[in-house]
């Protein structure tokens, strides 16, 4: 069992930056692909970004390309989401997720591929 705990959310203004962190329990963090999803009010949870087990491969949804960066530090069991140039459309609850069945360079984008989820962290961008 893996527990994921997010931190770093909050209220910012449009154009600001924010970094989310997600720390995982256990000793097998480097064997999981990791991802960030977000859920805006009244909408379904959607994929934001994913990173492969080693960090050698990343993938982003189109709306955040060039603004968000996903990274990981396997020595710290932590995955990050650096968010720049935030806008009101980025307002959502952000959750990290872990995929225990991933291959070395895979970056899954579907919710059903992920086995463990964090509790979520609110990000609010005021315009």
Describe this structure in words.
It is a single chain. 0% of the residues lie in helices and 46% in strands. The chain starts with a strand and ends with a strand. It is globular, with a radius of gyration of 13 Å. The chain is mainly β and 127 residues long. The relative contact order is 0.32. The mean pLDDT is 96.
Short structural description:
With 127 residues, this protein is an all-beta fold. Helices cover 0% and strands 46% of the residues.
- The percentage of residues in β strands lies in over 45%
Note the overall shape: globular
Share of residues in helices: under 10%
Low-confidence stretches: none
- Ends apart, CA distance between termini: 40 Å
Structural class: mainly beta
Radius of gyration: 13 Å
- Average pLDDT, all residues: 96
Helix count, per DSSP? 0
**Order of helix and strand elements from N to C terminus:** EEEEEEEEEEE
The tally of beta strands, per DSSP, is 11
Strand and helix map with partners:
Blueprint: E1 4-7, E2 10-13, E3 18-24, E4 33-39, E5 46-51, E6 58-60, E7 68-73, E8 78-83, E9 92-99, E10 116-117, E11 121-126
Parallel strand pairs: 2-11
Antiparallel strand pairs: 1-3, 3-8, 4-5, 4-9, 5-6, 7-8, 9-10, 9-11
